[in-house]
């Protein structure tokens, strides 16, 4: 049984481009990822394979970013502030309801 | 329609630890990821959202690594050489047959 090793496996694109093209790190995505990781830990959701918050390289949705993808569902989000991250956590990762307004 | 944006979204853990604990980068996982990415490109599978080969931070399966996870299936692998990577590509990513001997 390796399917769903993590109930929710969340990848934050933290890629930094240096060539002037848009990239997720232009939006401080690493800091948002750290915020999410700490919040998940504080909520007790980092245990027992419930939620894993991961760094990822370029997810190649740069123009729509900063991008997050939640697997195994394969639901993609963009976000602009901590409130957006909080809503993805409280709605999707805790209550299983994807946040329609943030989907890309 | 954002589900399955990529038919196969493959994450290679490329985390480097400096504290003596095992980590995937001890096994040159970044180089294996580059090998896989180039091979997928050469096979024409990088186009049209067929296969995406991504860098990831620590996937937290360090002791069983170097670790790969293929989403949306959520199938995990470990590997030791290029032949293993070739087999994951030819069997799983091209023919849809997970490689049982490499699963973790």
TrEMBL record, chains A, B:
Gene3D superfamilies tied to this protein: Glutaredoxin (3.40.30.10)
UniProt xrefs under CDD domains: TRX_Fd_family
InterPro entries listed in its UniProt record: Thioredoxin-like_sf
Identification of the protein by name: Fe2-S2-type ferredoxin
